[in-house]
Structure to design on (231 residues):
């Protein structure tokens, strides 16, 4: 157990629907990152939050949004889902933004299948 | 833009032998961090080893070591005495921080097979 908890582990939904992925970071970690892993695109950075504030944005679609709550858990909302959104979505956390020597601790991911 | 290239989509090694996975990166920064992550069939991302760019000494973690060539922007991973449990996807990653904004940029990965 890495200490980063992601729920649900698996999600199957239909095109056009909306889903919410949840992440609880490791205790003490203030930064949360979301990544998308698909077969043809590898690991793509989506967005970073630090202590409730958005800090960096990557290749995140406008149909996707995220937030980090006061208790530091984060949610990734995916709407108007398309078949191409099927992927493994990872959440990761790190001690603080700027703790450069530390890698990220990853959750076990949420496998999203859009049918 | 920072890019990370892993030129070997797949590699194989015999159990107990040594294998080296290649990684090159592109950056104009002088201060950064590099990582190797392992992703076994369970899909969990596991940090294997990290290297700080300002340190000339190559990082070592048990059977895992790196060959960091800053001028050449090369960061290869050597696995000694390979074990069946080392079979996994291996991702090289670059971490840059600027003004509180940061991210890990990953290569596309190398699939390592360990043959008994």
């Amino acid at each position: 157990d890495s200490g980063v908890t992601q729920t649900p582990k698996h999600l199957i939904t239909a095109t056009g629907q909306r889903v919410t992925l949840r992440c609880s970071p490791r205790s003490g970690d203030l930064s949360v990152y979301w990544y998308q892993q698909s077969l043809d695109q590898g690991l793509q950075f989506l967005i970073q939050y630090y202590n409730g504030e958005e800090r960096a944005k990557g290749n995140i679609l406008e149909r996707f949004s995220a937030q980090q709550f006061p208790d530091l858990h984060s949610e990734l909302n995916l709407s108007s889902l398309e078949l191409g959104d099927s992927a493994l979505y990872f959440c990761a956390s790190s001690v603080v933004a700027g703790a450069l020597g530390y890698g990220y601790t990853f959750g076990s991911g949420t496998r999203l299948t859009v049918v | 833009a920072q890019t990370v290239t892993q030129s070997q989509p797949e590699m194989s090694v015999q159990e107990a032998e040594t294998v080296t996975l290649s990684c090159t990166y592109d950056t104009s920064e002088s201060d950064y961090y590099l990582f190797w992550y392992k992703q076994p069939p369970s899909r969990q991302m596991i940090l294997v080893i990290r290297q700080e760019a300002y340190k000339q000494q190559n990082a070592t973690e048990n059977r895992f070591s790196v060959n960091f060539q800053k001028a050449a922007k090369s960061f290869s991973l050597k696995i000694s005495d390979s074990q069946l449990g080392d079979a996994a996807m291996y991702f090289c990653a670059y971490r840059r921080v600027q003004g509180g904004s940061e991210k890990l940029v990953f290569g596309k990965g190398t699939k390592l097979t360990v043959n008994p």
Summary: The longest strand of chain A covers residues 42-50. The mean pLDDT of chain A is 91. DSSP finds no helices and eleven strands in chain A.
